[in-house]
Amino acid sequence: MNLKLERQRSFKIRKLKRHLVLAKFEEAQDTIREADIMINGLVIANESMKIDIERLKDREMTLLYENGTLVNNIERLQIVVDLKH
Fold this sequence. Notes:
This protein is mainly α. The chain contains 1 helix and no strands. 98% of the residues lie in helices and 0% in strands.
């Protein structure tokens, strides 16, 4: 009788351990899914930022060119003004 109870107890312990392992595995899968979603969001944000950076670099180059053109115009006008005086 004692052996039978010990076997039942042992079986229940093994069953409980399997259940705990399965629960931890499922929890790990959920964590991995959440991390995957977060990483995908970060990758999308990173790509968007790269596009923004390129757009801003292009805008910077345009503004630098325009600035150079304005400086040249001012210098030419200053020369004209100086010649008239």
